Amino acid sequence: MTAEAVPAVETFETANDRLKHSFSSWFWGSMIAATFVHFAAFAFWPQLTAEDFSFDTEELVAIELPPEIEIPPPPQQISRPATPIMAAADIEEDITIAPTTFEDNPVEDLPPPPEQADTDLSAAPTFTPFTVAPSILNRTDVMRAMEREYPPLLRDAGIGGTVKVYFFIDENGRVGDRRIDESSGHQALDDAAMTVAEIYQFSPALNRDKKVPVWVSFSITFQVR
How do the domains of the chain map onto residue ranges? Predict the structure, then answer.
């Protein structure tokens, strides 16, 4: 009986096997190289010191807190006033006031009325009592004058404003004086308003049935329509 021949099996060496076989040489080579590098570093740079990274801190300053405020106690409740008590008194029912007659107070003995100082109302704007205010008689002429006197530069730029003008109107309705009461903020509009103010015509003011001179303020408004 003869033994059968065993066929030869080919083996292949893998990368992992090659790494295992060369691990020892790589390991000891690395150790030798590291040792050489360390000795060389100590030989050429024998004194190695760490850099100073210390820093200075600012001194903290303690803040003095204000003293604690003591809240005062609430005020005592105000006591209610006592209930008034009607006192008993005897009052005569025949008490009367003596009548005032011209016999007891003759006109000749009365003091004269105070003299009224003559004041010029047209000197400055002042209040004068009246029951019927003066009214504008020529509104159409005033509107035309406002369109004519509107400064072109301000009108084209869309800039408008209101000027309040004082008018002194005498007892016949004539305008004796004109002054600016409140400016519009633009000198050109103020000048145009004073020009328009010369066109105004008024009816006289009345205090009951008497014509009186008065100061009145009217607004002249320039605006782009």
Answer: 125-222
Task: Read off the pLDDT of residues 51-62 as tens digits, 9 standing for 90 and up.
Answer: 666 667 677 777
List pLDDT tens digits, range 90-109: 767 776 777 777 777 777 77
- Residue 1 confidence class, pLDDT cut points 50, 70, 90: very low
Q: Report pLDDT for 140.
A: 92
Q: What is the 3-state secondary structure (H, E, C) of the chain?
A: CCCCCCCCCCCCCCHHHHHHHHHHHHHHHHHHHHHHHHHHHHHHCCCCCCCCCCCCCCCCCCCCCCCCCCCCCCCCCCCCCCCCCCCCCCCCCCCCCCCCCCCCCCHHHCCCCCCCCCCCHHHCCCCCCCCECCCECCHHHHHHHHHHHCCHHHHHCCCCEEEEEEEEECCCCCEEEEEEEECCCCHHHHHHHHHHHCCCCECCEEECCEEECEEEEEEEEECCC
Going 103 to 105 to 111 to 115, the CA torsion angle's sign is negative
Model's pTM, two decimal places? Answer: 0.47
Mean predicted lDDT score pLDDT of the chain: 81
Q: If 0-12 CB within 10 Å is exposed, 13-18 middle and 19+ buried, where does residue 151 land?
A: middle
Class of domain 125-222: alpha beta
